[in-house]
Amino acid sequence: MRREELAESTCAIAQSLAAVGDPWSLLVIRDVAGGVHRFDALRDALDVSRRTLTDRLAGLVDNGVLERRCYQQRPPRYEYHLTDQGRGLLPTLVALQDWGSRHLLGDGTLSATTTPGSLESERVHGLLGQQMPAVRLLDTAGAGTDPVTADAFTVLACLPGAIADATAYPADWAQIPGAAGCTLEATTYRDLAHEFAALGAHVRLLSTATPRQLSAFAAELDLAMPLLSDEELQLVTALRLPTFHASGRDHLKRLTMIIGPDRMIQAVQFPISSPADSVRETLASLARLG
Fold this sequence. Notes:
Elements lengths: L2 H6 L3 H9 L2 H11 L5 H8 L3 H13 L3 E7 L4 E6 L1 H4 L2 H15 L14 H7 L11 E2 L5 E2 L7 E6 L23 H10 L1 H6 L2 E7 L3 H11 L5 E3 L4 H6 L3 E4 L2 E4 L2 E5 L5 E5 L5 H15 L1
Parallel strand pairs: 5-6, 6-7
Antiparallel strand pairs: 1-2, 3-4, 5-10, 8-9, 10-11
Helix pairs in contact: 9-13
């Protein structure tokens, strides 16, 4: 079946594949979501020919996935950004990453963690030296918030759960390797808050739970630090953070990043075998960085 025939099909899957089913198109969307917006930067990142990239960008613009924004008048130069329609594809990218990590790079086991030295671990540690993208995540009040604190170190701890209502967790949550421990990790950060403050660091807890769920979690545990929701998978996609899919929802795998005042990622912990010990390890990393 030709691409033109796919686009005319009554099947929504076929029509979607006609618009974005080409591998290069999906990789372009991945990199634009990650903050690469200009033609030459995209070509370098993808190591693709100018013709191929030009064709894919034109197709994605025509299908309403990307929009062009002029950043230079003479000669005219454009950046490419996701539209609202394009952002709707982010869960698809996350699903592909999760499936590949589990079934192609892994042994098919559902897991909230990985093994040290795995390809997934290497990819996450490759975040060192990268700049945090400019995204706005919802806080517990539903307001858009920059996950990074200006002029200070930021600790961003990614939690698989962070939900107060035990019935809201997927079935057999405790049997998923690495999933349990969100309460212990959060309360350890709470109890050691004065030590993080003494090092000039601001702690943020990140989850794909909804702002309402995070608000209830914070109230139950008396947490003073901000809790941020990446329910729409913006930061997950931008940094290609590891996730796992359980009971119809995407959950972050447990990891911690330290981001410097320059917005550069300066330390990464992944995988994490002990939630409480990881908090103390973060303190030690901050002391070395300071």
